[in-house]
Amino acid sequence: MAHGKSYRTQRGDAGLPYLLRLLSLLCLLGCLTACNSVLRGQEDGANTTEPVEVPPAAEPAPPPPPAPAVQAATTPGTRGGRQAPSASLGSSAWSGSGGLFGNLGSLLGSTRSGGMAKADHDTAPGGATRVTVYYATDRQYQTGSRNYGWQPNRTPPYLSYGSVVVSIPEKRAPGELPLPPWYAILSSNDAQKYVLIQGATRLPRADFLATVKARIRAAPERHAAFIYIHGYSNSFDDAARRTAQMAVDLDIGALPVFYSWPSKGTLAGYEFDENAAEWTQAHLQAFLADFAEHSSATDIYIIAHSMGNRPMTLALANLLEQRPDLLPLFKQVVLAAPDINADVFREQIAPRFASLKLPATLYASANDKAMRASCSFADWDRIGDIRGPVVGIPGMEIVDASAVIMNFMGHDYFASNRVLLTDIATMIKTGQRAKNRGGLKGIPSQAPQYWAFP
Q1: CA separation (Å) from 412 to 2, 49, 337, 442?
Q2: By the 8 A CB rule, do 430 and 424 touch?
Q3: Distance between CA 109 and CA 44 in Å, rounded?
Q4: CA torsion, points 51, 52, 58, 62, in degrees to nearest 10?
Q5: Which regions of 218-276 does DSSP assign to beta strands (E)?
Q6: Which of 52, 214, 337, 390 could cross-link 384 (Cys pair, CB 3.0–4.6 Å)?
Q7: Residue 94 neighbours by CB under 8 Å, 6+ apart
Q8: Span 206-247, pLDDT tens digits
Q9: pTM value?
């Protein structure tokens, strides 16, 4: 993170042939997959339902009447008195760790949801919280599987919109994302135990913006939204579940939205995902501009994870340099475990954020195995890997999360650890920078170059 030279180069083995390094990386990640499967003993078995096709609308539909954003799930495993379908197969154990390596292509369930999202949520005693999260994606919609797959949508205008209803168990520690184990095929629709996708609605752009605008305006305190951009090897469903979990655990009074780019969702899809992340940048920029202009949100918070930081940083910098009038809307930017070339970030991205005076916070860790694998694959430092001497970045706060308790991979700590969730929530709710937030120490203490959890 400090020098821009890879740890592989420092060890003197940078001359390994590319194929050998790729094979070594796949072996490493394969071993990690096997170990994680044993440790967690569960796979992604999210519920699926059938989508509702919504015809395009020329003009925005009248905003619907205010309704609770989050509804308490009725009977666990049911929807409107009907038994929910059983879990889908063919998914990956990495989804159990927050979707770092995603599922291998689960079927997206989708029906028109009766509940509309607001910034708050309600929980029924002994039941589950139903959260409606909103999305934009440039994935191609697969009519056969009723799912947004990994293929890019290469047909203009590229983006699709809608909402997803996710149920979150009430009896769950903050940060936990419990998913049905592979063997629980018949009982995997238990909303009291598992995070489940209950349904979804596909919407034309005009209806999406009208609905989002109505929901944000109906918020009792402030007109806020947070937008989550997922990382490498995440499925559409992974992003929906993670967004809903963060909406409940952060409890920041902001409409939950996610942007899903066409990650391949497989362990070996790293190079494809790199190209997809580059391809999606223009579409993400267009979405951020559209959302800022038409959503009625006065406070927008960005949370990007891993490779999702690549398109996010460039899209946001481009947008705000072209449209400085939108700058006051973006209150906080969180770069969680960013999988970005360290030299590129320091020399080409961070200075642009500094000139815009964007309040940005970068969370990194020395115990992030995914960052280590990315560094090994690319033979270049990643800015989300904080091993070695740390050099401060002007205009950006760096927070070292190495001391917090992490899961086996140590990559989704931003959303799976209570300490991190508390820090992010405090930052968003109060607007306080690191020096004023409890639980962080400056390093060095007198003139801190970065911050750390003790």
Answers
A1: 22, 28, 8, 23
A2: no
A3: 14
A4: -110
A5: 224-229, 255-260
A6: 337
A7: 33, 36, 100, 101, 102, 103, 233, 267
A8: 999 999 999 999 988 899 999 999 999 999 999 999 999 999
A9: 0.76
